[in-house]
């Protein structure tokens, strides 16, 4: 597999003298953690859990549960089976496997009242060990609209999508409308027609033909439908029965999926990382050739060239300063203008929306005693504010991350250009050929957001509340409603501040990390070029035997670098 070939190249590069270990480590991390996000979507009752269980050959997910809330459940490889809940404040807590649905279903966690970001299940499945992440989503067409919205958003991050249908239910209008909206992702959607064991061969052919026609109409192009029986596939895998597996038709689907993951999507990943390694190898080769050339160059001439290079470093120092100023200004503008504008607009709308809902809810519960009425309205405001801001953050997350990634690509291009300029300058100064290799840099912001609600009221609030409860009900109720409306405005404003702060902190932290990494690349380049020349000067001042030995070492290193370049070329071209 090409990814394995790349990993061997990365391992070989680590044994070469003069290569930047920091950049090599960054490339290796991306190769080792390269995960394929395989997202499973479909309407409720399409038996998605059975398909997931069949893929990993075990009953890790129970079937027949109520609709999921807007939380991703991610299955990934782990030596030990475990379930972890990751909360929005950053806390990660291991929970018993049997309590999973207390966190991801509407019944156990309505509107995500527990503040869960995602659930992660580690499982020792060989199929997951290849780097596949299985992402289970809420059913589209759920009575809970936020579930369908969540599925739309997560589709954007999918490397491949499994779209579940079943033979006992025709393609519904909700599914049809959903597919028309996601036509642009057609190339990575696999359509599964599940529960084939319920039909005769003749009826299955009719059902498959019907599903294919409807799906082709929705997608605007012909599609391949894989009829499968997840139940038989799981039974076959658990029993080691080839006959049951063949009857399930599951192998035809998994073969096509694995080909896509390893070949199509894998080629893009391998090509990107191979370009990065090839760029690094090209720079290391130049440094070795520069050191080799300096061995035969008169010391005085070397000194003059080193002085010229030092002048070039002064120019680069100004470019580094300009890079820092512009990057910080752009990130600050993104945080202060784009995100803040969205937050403020949402806050204004939310305050009015909740006030309107609050009045309707008040009319429904105003028969309660004053104390209970007051507590009910407060809880109602908290639930509405929490759910609304939770939804806003999920919607908004894509925007700053996308804009920040674009900033990183633009500024990493500037850094690469500065590094290449240093090499081209040195190439002309020392008359050594250098060919630059373009490569991408990926950088993502991570959230540390958490909610803050007032759980312990101050003395003034307690006094005011107690006073309201002693007034005649027809007077106190109106004041209790007004108090809840004020609470709505204050809580909404507090949450707006928290969201703004979260996005600003995320962007600032990511910007600083990115800035350090990019500036280090320039500094490493300068130091490595200068070290290559000065090492040549130091060796040239010694006797001929030492010079010859150093030249042989450099020549051997160049041969290894040339061999590594030859191995990387087809990997780069594979995409």
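Q: What amino acid sequence fits the structure above?
A:
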């Amino acid at each position: 597999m090409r990814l394995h070939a790349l990993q061997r190249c990365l391992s070989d590069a680590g044994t070469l003298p003069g290569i930047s270990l920091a950049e090599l480590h960054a490339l290796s991390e991306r190769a080792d953690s390269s995960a394929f996000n395989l997202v499973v979507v479909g309407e409720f009752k399409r038996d998605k859990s059975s398909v997931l269980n069949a893929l990993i050959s075990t009953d890790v997910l129970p079937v027949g549960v109520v609709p999921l809330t807007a939380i991703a459940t991610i299955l990934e490889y782990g030596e030990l089976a475990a379930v972890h809940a990751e909360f929005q404040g950053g806390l990660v807590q291991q929970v018993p496997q049997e309590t999973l649905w207390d966190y991801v279903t509407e019944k156990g966690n309505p509107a995500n009242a527990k503040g869960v970001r995602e659930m992660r299940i580690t499982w020792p499945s060989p199929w997951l060990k290849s780097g596949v992440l299985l992402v289970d989503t809420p059913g589209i067409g759920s009575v809970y609209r936020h579930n369908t919205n969540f599925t739309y958003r997560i589709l954007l991050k999918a490397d491949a999508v499994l779209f579940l249908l079943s033979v006992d239910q025709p393609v519904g209008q909700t599914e049809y409308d959903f597919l028309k909206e996601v036509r642009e992702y057609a190339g990575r959607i696999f359509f599964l027609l599940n529960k084939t064991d319920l039909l005769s061969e003749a009826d299955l052919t009719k059902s498959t033909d019907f599903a294919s026609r409807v799906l082709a109409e929705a997608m605007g192009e012909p599609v391949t439908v894989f009829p499968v029986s997840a139940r038989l596939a799981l039974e076959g895998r658990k029993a080691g029965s080839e006959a049951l597996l063949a009857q399930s038709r599951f192998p035809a689907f998994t073969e096509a999926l694995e080909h896509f993951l390893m070949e199509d999507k894998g080629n893009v990943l391998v090509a990107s990382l191979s370009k990065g390694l090839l760029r690094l190898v090209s720079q290391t080769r130049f440094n070795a050739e520069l050191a080799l050339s300096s061995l035969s160059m008169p010391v005085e001439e070397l000194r003059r060239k080193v002085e010229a290079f030092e002048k070039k470093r002064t120019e680069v120092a100004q470019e580094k300063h300009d890079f820092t100023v512009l990057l910080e200004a752009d990130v600050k503008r993104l945080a202060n203008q784009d995100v803040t504008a969205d937050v403020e607009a949402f806050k204004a709308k939310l305050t009015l929306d909740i006030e309107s809902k609050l009045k309707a809810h008040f009319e429904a519960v105003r028969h309660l005693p004053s104390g209970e009425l007051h507590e009910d309205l407060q809880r109602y405001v908290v639930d509405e504010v929490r759910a609304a801001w939770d939804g806003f953050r999920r919607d908004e997350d894509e925007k700053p991350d996308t804009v920040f990634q674009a900033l990183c690509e633009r500024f990493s291009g500037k850094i690469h250009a500065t590094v290449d300029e240093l090499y081209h300058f040195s190439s002309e100064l020392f008359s050594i050929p250098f060919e630059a290799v373009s490569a991408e840099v990926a950088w993502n912001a991570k959230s540390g957001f958490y909610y803050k609600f007032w759980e312990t009221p101050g003395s003034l609030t307690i006094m005011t509340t107690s006073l309201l409860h002693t007034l005649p009900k027809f007077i106190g109720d109106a004041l209790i409603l007004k108090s809840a409306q004020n609470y709505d405005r204050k809580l909404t404003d507090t949450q707006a501040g928290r969201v703004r702060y979260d996005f600003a902190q995320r962007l600032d932290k990511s910007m600083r990390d990115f800035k350090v990494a990019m500036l280090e690349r320039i500094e490493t380049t300068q130091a490595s070029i200068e070290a290559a020349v000065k090492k040549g000067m130091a060796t040239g001042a010694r006797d001929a035997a030492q010079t010859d030995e150093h030249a042989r070492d450099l020549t051997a290193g160049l041969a290894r670098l040339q061999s590594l370049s030859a191995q990387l070329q087809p990997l780069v071209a594979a995409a």
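Q: And what stands out in the fold?
A: The first helix runs from residue 2 to 13.
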